[in-house]
Amino acid sequence: MIERLIYGLQNGKLVTIDDVQSGLSCGCVCPNCKSKLIAKKGNIREHHFAHINNNDCFWRGESLIHLKSKEIISNSRTIKLPKLIWSYNPEILIFDEVTITIDKVTLERKVNDFIPDIIIESKGRKLLIEIIYSHGVNNIKYRKIRKTDIPAIGINVKDIVNSLFKEKDYFFNSNKFKTELINSAKYKFWIYNPELIKLRKILKSKYAERHVIQTLKSNNVFFDDMIYSEYCPIAKRTWQSGILKGESYAKLYEDCENCKYYLGRDEYEIIGCNSGVVIDKKPAIYCIGHLGSPFDLDIRNVINKHKKKIRQNKS
C-alpha cells in the first residue's frame, strides 16, 4: 500500500523524493496544501516527504494519480480494453481483449445523474472509464452506470502504482505507468457491458429458475446482515445446524453474483393484486445452475449466436 508522501512541488515542478536533497534544503511544498515539506532520506525507513507544520493534510498522492491518469488517456489515440468473460472456470469468453481508437475524450461530464471520470468516443460509440484508487464501485454507483446503458470499465491505478513502486519506479520518470494504463488490460475490468446484460436476458427467458432471497439479521455490530438464496442447485454452501441442516444455500454477494449460472435478480413481485399495489415483496435471483455443467456448451452456443448478430449490426 502507498502510505507515504513521495511527491513534492519544487519551484512549481513535480518531483519525487529521489530527485531532491535531504532535509529542508529540498525546497519543496506539498502538492495539496502547499505547506513546506522536509525530505526524510535516512538509512532505515523508506524515503519520503513529511509536513513541517500542517498535520491536518492527509495527502497521499491519490488526486495526483487521478489527474495524471486522465491526462495520459486524454492524450492517447488508442486504449486496450479487457476481456469480457461469462465465467472463469471454465473460461467462457464473450469478447477478447481489444485495442480501440480514441476519437474524443471528455472529462467528468454528467451523464444522467452520474459523473464518470472519463468518457471516450470511438467510431460513434461511447465508453465510460472509472479511475479506481481507494474506493471501488459500490452498488449505488453501479446502478447509476447501468442506468446510462453505456459500457464502462474500471482501471485499478493503485495496483499499477504499487507494482511499479516495488521497483522504485516513480512512473513520472518512465513510460511504464503509461504502458500499463494504455497498452495493457491487466489492471482493467468491466464494470458494466450491455452485451452481457442482453445475454443474461436471453438465457433468463429460456432457462432460468427463480430462487427467493432471504435476509438473516445479525445482532452483532461487527457483522452485516447475511443475504442469501434459500436454495442453491450446485450447493455452494450447506447449513451446518438448525432446522435447515444439510440443505443448500448461497450468499448473494459472495457466491451468486460471482457464479456463471447467475442471471440477475429482481427486487419484488406483485402477487394477487388487481390494482397494481405491491402487497408482497419477494426478492429473488434468476439461476440456471439446475442445468449443470454440460449446459456450458449451450451457453457458448448462445454467446456465439449473439456475437454474430452484433457483427451483422456493425457491418
TrEMBL record:
Superkingdom of this protein's organism: Bacteria
InterPro entries: CoiA-like_N
Competence protein CoiA-like N-terminal domain segment(s): 28-57
Cited Pfam families: CoiA_N
Protein name from the UniProt record: Competence protein CoiA-like N-terminal domain-containing protein
Source species of the chain: Tamlana crocina
